[in-house]
Amino acid sequence: MKSIDVCLTPDLLHLHTIDNTIVVVTDIFRATSCMVTGLAYGVGSITPVATVEECFELQQKGYIAAAERNAMKVEGFDLDNSPFSYMDEDLVGANIAMTTTNGTLSITKAKTSAVKVLVGAFLNLGAIVNHLKSQPYDVLVLCAGWKGRVNLEDTLFAGALVDALKDEYIIGEDSALMAMRAYQQAQNDLLGYVANSSHVRRLQRLGIHKDIAYCLQRDLYDVVPVLRGSTLVNM
Amino acid sequence: MKSIDVCLTPDLLHLHTIDNTIVVVTDIFRATSCMVTGLAYGVGSITPVATVEECFELQQKGYIAAAERNAMKVEGFDLDNSPFSYMDEDLVGANIAMTTTNGTLSITKAKTSAVKVLVGAFLNLGAIVNHLKSQPYDVLVLCAGWKGRVNLEDTLFAGALVDALKDEYIIGEDSALMAMRAYQQAQNDLLGYVANSSHVRRLQRLGIHKDIAYCLQRDLYDVVPVLRGSTLVNM
């Protein structure tokens, strides 16, 4: 039987062996929600990079560049970190380079040894579930968190995946069990449940209510972003 | 206003500054439950050490020595890691040296910079709460976890502390919020809630049902174990 486990922050990734595993990276507010939205709206590819410098280099090579730090757009780049910015006709077929505080770093950390790296969000939850079920591999959900810390929204997404797969997968360690129970507690009112979370407080200070509500919607898009080499494409 | 935060495993302790903070270390199954029980039953002192070698050295100097690895007593030592072993008249006034897989390492990690290190368990929950309220410092609950991983029972204890202090303290990051909500979900049936946890499965294989039920009881003892130098004593 396959197993599913949850890594609550990239700072705990050293505890997991991921050789025979599909890693699903999630950063609900807002990196992976942007990626899913972009690919659903026809973006050609998204190249996640760990640093602002790498992002700038790709911008020089003609990529559309998106750089976020501390939830704000870095000066001189083309796109901010709102999923609504990715619903743009001008981006259809475009190659985007992206760096964010937490999400893209997690992707670059995961890609070293996993069988495959997928990008998940509530927006494509069902599509991820269906793809995982069709594969013979174990699953690790890697929550991007916030600067190494655990956060609520990524944990809830991890819990939603565990909940959806619990009948066909062995649940790994307690973090997976805790995430699943948190999701079961929260699922009928995700927005209310995250209302006091640190990241929502951080984003609300920036006035991004609309993004928060949007990123908590389930199954809007039937896309499965997968890392091919260094670039995310729709599977 | 004072704040309370939760560190879900010692592998995340680097994310916290603890200079102005009382750290409450917890390792419910079973190190800190043993310590609380021992001090409640009249043990003179307990010296937590990180390694089996250090524990052996103190045994040579006349300490009663307790060494546990992977939930079992290490050959050649005097005491195992069951709280019932600490309810012994022969231990009244004794100096005990103790090393365990997770709990004692967390204590030695915390003592470098905290204002004060306390040892908490469900058994002395109310006593810890009362002491913390009387102090002017922030609080960090440090969960010992299992070899770096997050576990359910320590998280629940952390959540119980956050829940008890939430009206007088600012709740820190999302890990504190998650722990509190897990405790609120679990509080009426702690034993049922942890039944599927990894550590309970581990302990049940070893046939230690009685210990599990015992360690989940609240407020049996009015003791506050505090680290003085390298040694835990009843405050």
UniProtKB/TrEMBL annotation, chains A, B:
UniProt-recorded Gene Ontology molecular function terms: 2-phosphosulfolactate phosphatase activity; magnesium ion binding; sulfopyruvate decarboxylase activity
Gene name tied to this protein: comB
> Catalyses which reaction?
(2R)-O-phospho-3-sulfolactate + H2O = (2R)-3-sulfolactate + phosphate
Give EC number(s), comma-separated.
3.1.3.71
Membership in a protein family: Belongs to the ComB family.
Keywords recorded for this protein, A-Z? Hydrolase, Magnesium
* Descriptive protein name: Probable 2-phosphosulfolactate phosphatase
What cofactor is this protein dependent on? Mg(2+)
Species of provenance: Runella defluvii
Q: Which domain of life is it from?
A: Bacteria
Q: Which InterPro entries match?
A: ComB-like (IPR005238), ComB-like_sf (IPR036702)
